[in-house]
Write a structure and sequence with these properties.
This protein is of the alpha/beta class and 461 residues long. The protein contains twelve helices and 19 strands. The strands form three sheets. Strands 1, 2, 3, 4, 5, 16, 17, 18 and 19 form a nine-stranded mixed β-sheet that branches. It has an eight-stranded parallel β-sheet with strand order 6-9-10-11-12-13-14-15. Strands 7-8 form a two-stranded antiparallel ribbon.
């Protein structure tokens, strides 16, 4: 099966030009002006952008948390991602206390069999005795070349500094990358207990008990541990100017420190947590939303490349039955929100259309750098000869109102309900197969392949 995309304006992280793209056997085999070739399928992309499929490197499909499980599984979550122009994602396998890393991987591989587009896995490490540290090398050989560790959630996910250092020391040897959830979990836990004791149980206290200084301190500590271990570090879902400042200082010193943020931190604020009738529970995720002024600082971080990636931290819980578990206490509200479908839309409208970032930078932070950072480039993350034909035909003029009534995520609300955007994915190809065509779904569960990733892709060397 061959496909020819004609007359499109090709946008990559580095280039902007008009050309045709020929796809054969899931790969890009020719790029050029007015290609004189025959193809089984021809798509006219005149007046539209042809971009590499988005790559979301932070999602939580089918994830147990807080006495429930995230509402999207690998089938519904990857389908929703594709509708939004994301053709690859990296989810998190979770090692529980006392479990071998390999056992956790097998569980998540089974979950991933439903995927409709390609996916990779990070490994969340919660238990790393010296006797099992060599298991990290096995994961790298299996194509899991990144590990996530938590400085938050004591007794559940949090590990101590010595464990973080040991993991980083091992990644310095095997070329993997440590992703850090950086908040001072021990101190936050004391704040939470105090708030509850004082009867402060509304959703807004989720944010008020997790101050920006707790994030900034933990980011600084994670960077120091990485420096001592001689390893790179990647800070996930950075939310505040305090944390951003620590990353900027480290990068100015030449340290291999990287960070991502998410659309919710760029566009929402702590005020959303104070919505009446328990509506604020829809915006309970960690780190929490901050005061509005942090948004401008994060946008500056994207422009200056202090922030290299925008992911979603997609972890949806339905408002009814799931978020409502925390009506009596914010500490019992499942942490997470939906967003995998809206990332490219929101960053295009609020970034490109509002002239905060260029078209090239939009592609860079949503596709190319994630591919480079996590060992998938140039198979994915660009439009080039030999690359996987993960391609999105983007119509910059399509107007759309984001709503739970029309989105494809399996969750009963949208964090961005009523947001009007201009620009949307029109046709989405995953390895050359058209899975979304003008709002119609053509994909199927199980067609997504596991992405065996290279060790850090040489991104920091």
């Amino acid at each position: 099966m061959s496909t020819l995309i004609q007359n499109g304006r090709i946008i990559t992280a580095e280039q902007d030009y008009t050309a045709d793209v020929l796809i054969e056997n899931e790969k890009i085999t020719a790029i050029g002006a007015a290609l004189s070739v025959k193809a089984d399928k021809v798509i006219d992309a005149k007046g539209k952008y042809v971009i590499p499929g988005g790559i979301d490197v932070h999602t939580h499909m089918d994830m147990p948390f807080g006495g429930t499980t995230s509402s999207d599984d690998f089938e519904t979550g990857t389908r929703a991602a594709a509708f939004g122009g994301t053709t690859s994602l990296i989810d998190f396998a979770i090692q529980t206390k006392g479990q071998k890393i390999r056992e956790a991987l097998d569980i998540w591989w089974k979950k991933g069999e439903k995927a409709t587009v390609d996916y990779g896995l990070h490994m969340i490490v919660t238990d790393l005795p010296e006797a099992h540290i060599e298991d990290m090398n096995e994961m790298v050989r299996e194509g899991l070349t990144s590990f996530k560790l938590f400085m938050a959630y004591p007794g559940v996910l949090m590990v101590d500094d010595a464990t973080i250092y040991r993991a980083m020391k091992k990644t310095a040897e095997n070329g993997a990358l440590v992703c850090m959830h950086a908040e001072n979990g021990g101190v936050i836990d004391l704040f939470v207990q105090k708030a509850i004791a004082e009867g402060k149980t509304a959703p807004i206290y989720h944010a008020l008990t997790r101050p920006t200084t707790a994030e900034g301190e933990a980011v600084n500590r994670a960077i120091a541990l990485a420096q001592m271990a001689g390893a790179p570090v990647y800070i996930v879902h950075l939310s505040s100017a305090d944390a951003l400042e620590k990353v900027a200082e480290a990068r100015d010193r030449g340290l291999p420190v990287f960070a991502e943020t998410c659309p919710q931190y760029l566009l929402l604020s702590i005020e959303d947590l104070d919505r009446p009738n328990f509506e604020g529970a829809k915006y309970v995720f960690t780190p929490p939303l901050r005061e509005k002024w942090h948004q401008d600082e994060l946008w500056k971080g994207i422009r200056k490349n202090t922030l290299q990636v925008v992911s979603t931290d997609h972890c949806p819980f339905c408002f009814k039955e799931q978020k409502e578990l925390g009506r009596e206490s914010f500490a019992k509200i499942p942490n997470g929100g939906p967003g995998v479908e809206n990332r490219l839309q929101l960053l295009f409208h609020h970034g490109v259309n509002q002239k905060r970032i260029s078209l090239n930078r939009w592609v860079e932070i949503t596709s190319t750098t994630p591919a480079k950072m996590f060992g998938m480039y140039p198979r994915k993350g660009t439009i080039a000869l030999g690359s996987d034909a993960d391609i999105v035909i983007w119509n910059p003029n399509t107007e759309h109102t984001i709503s739970a009534s029309t989105h494809h995520m399996r969750v009963d609300y949208s964090m961005f309900e009523g947001f009007k955007i201009k620009g949307n994915a029109e046709t989405v190809l995953s390895r050359g197969e058209v899975v979304v065509d003008n709002g119609k779904w053509n994909g199927k569960a199980g067609r997504g392949k596991f992405i065996k990733r290279d060790a850090f892709g040489g991104a920091w060397k």
